[in-house]
Every structure is written in C-alpha cells, then in structure tokens.
Amino acid sequence: MRTPELKRLIWAGPLTVLASCLVVLSIRAAAAAILKPDPGFLPLTLKPPIIDTVWGAGAAVLVFHAMCRDTPDPVNKYRALAAKLWLFRFCPTFGWPFSMGMAAGGLKHPHWPPCISQCGLFVSRCYPGLL
After folding, report:
1. pLDDT tens digits for range 28-46
2. 131/24 Cα distance (integer angstroms)
3. What is the separation of C-alpha 68 from the centre of its chain, rounded to a whole number of angstroms?
4. What's the farthest any 2 CA atoms get from each other in the chain?
5. What is the DSSP letter of 3?
6. Using CA atoms, how far apart are residues 27 and 22, in angstroms rounded to an integer?
7. Residue 9 and residue 64: Cα distance in Å, rounded?
8. What sign does the dihedral 25-29-105-40 (CA atoms) show?
9. DSSP one-letter code for 49
10. What's the rounded Cα separation, in Å, for the pair 101 and 9?
11. SS3 state of residue 104
C-alpha cells in the first residue's frame, strides 16, 4: 500500500480543479451550441457550472488530503467514499426530469435535452474525484 506524498497536493490539487473546470466548460459549450437553451435556463449559463466545479473539486482535494493524513490506505478508502457520494449525488440529478412532470411527456418533452446535458455536466464535474 503506497501513501501519496502530501507535498504533491500543493500543485496537483489546484491542477485537478482547473482540469475539472476545463472539462465542464467544454461540455457546457458543446451542450449550449447543440441545444441552444433559453437564456433563463441557469444550469447551462456560465457561472453555475464553474462555481459548482470549483467548490466540488476543491472539497474533494481537501477530503483527499485529510484522508492521506489520517487513514492507512487513503487511495482505496477515498475512491470508495467518492463512488458512494457520486451515486448519492447523482440520484437527484437523474430524478430532476421526473420531478418536472417530463416523464409523462416522453422523450419529446422540450426539457429533456437540457436535463441530459445536466447529467453530462454532473458526470464530468464529479468524475475526477473518482480517479
């Protein structure tokens, strides 16, 4: 069992946050170009994905740092925790269309494409935490 060097988190942590932001912004740009959402649809505007990603990825780095300090097998324990949190957090994202009554309208309902793009943004935002 190999313990990561905490000194590397000084540069690897911010790099992880930056890489996550770039991936989320590229997916957002593609989704906005394809879907041409209503400007009032806030999840596909510029600010919310960036804020969510910086907070989420930053928190993931801090949790990983704490686990490296305090647990004997930090990488495997962190991955297990991240996978559980990812699944727990993904359920509301996937349930969002159903809560808006979109399931009854089928896949032709006008809000399905933005919801699917939100799922893609969520996966890209959270995937680095699972690595």
Report:
1. 888 778 877 777 777 778 8
2. 16
3. 22
4. 53
5. P
6. 9
7. 9
8. positive
9. H
10. 44
11. helix
